[in-house]
Amino acid sequence: MFGIFNKKKSFLEVWSGTPEMHCHVLPGIDDGAKTIAKSEELLKKYKSLGCDKVIATPHTMGGIYDNTPTTIFKAFESIKDTQGIDLSYSSEYMLDEVFTTYLETKELIPLVDNFVLVEMSFFQPPENLFEQIFKIGSQGYTPILAHPERYAYYHNNLKNYNKLKKMGCYFQLNALSLTNHYGKSINKQALLLLEAGMYDFIGTDAHRFEHLEKISTFEISTKYKDVINRICHNTKSLFENN
After folding, report:
1. Phi and psi dihedrals of 93, rounded to 5?
2. Could you report the per-residue pLDDT of 113-156, keeping only the tens digit for each?
3. Of 113, 122, 101, residue with least CA distance to 141
4. What is the torsion angle, in degrees rounded to the nearest 10, for the CA atoms of residue 58, residue 59, residue 60 and residue 65?
5. What dihedral do alpha carbons 159, 163, 169, 172 form, nearest 10°?
6. Where are the domains of the chain?
7. pLDDT tens digit string along 163-202?
8. Looking at residue 19, what DSSP letter applies?
9. Of 38, 40, 146, 209, which one has the fewest beta carbons inside 10 Å?
10. Which CATH topology does 2-238 take?
C-alpha cells in the first residue's frame, strides 16, 4: 500500500518539450557559460533533452554583473551555432537601483510580451520589496520572481509569498530545487510551495553542463506529476507564438 506514495517518475519525461525560460548560456557576461564553446555545448545538451526553445537570462546586477541591453545583445550575437535551438534573450534582474533605473527608462528586456524575470538577494529582501513589485506593475510590466524557494528568510511562512501573489507577481520554480542540489531546506520549501499551488512557471537556471546532466537523470514522486505538468503547460503557453 505504501508503495503507491513512493513511486517515482523521470522528471525529464514531464519537462521535455518545455521552453527554457531561465538559464545562463550567453558567453562571458555572468557566472554562467564562460566561452562560446561552452554556450554551444549547453545548447546542444538542451536539444538532446527535447528542449527546442531557450531564452537566455544573464544576470543584471549592479556592481557585480553590470550588463546592459548592448552587452547582452553582443553576447547573444557571438553565438553562431545555436545547435538548432530557437534562441532568444532577456535578463534576470536583481531588484536593485540599477533595475529601478531600467524600469523607469523602459530599458528592460522582457522574457516575452511584458513579463520580466526578477530576483532578490539570498541574504535579505529589499527593504522596499512590495513597493518595487507595485512599481513594476504600474510601469506596464508583469514580474516573475525567480526561484522563490531559495530565499531562506521566507521559509516556513507563506504570508509574504501570498502577498506577492496577490500583487500580481508570478513565481518560477527552479527544476533542480526538486532535488537536494541547493540543499535539503531549499528542496523542502520547493515542495511546500508546489503543494500550495504557488508556482506558475518552471526553468532550470542552468549555469553549467552538469546542471543539465542532473535534469536528465533525477526522478520526482508521482504525487507531484500533475502539478508539475500544469506548470510546464503554463510555461509552454507563455511562449506560444513567440
Report:
1. -95, 125
2. 999 999 999 999 998 999 999 999 999 999 999 999 999 999 97
3. 113
4. -110
5. 0
6. 2-238
7. 999 999 999 999 999 999 999 999 999 999 999 999 999 9
8. P
9. 209
10. TIM Barrel (3.20.20)
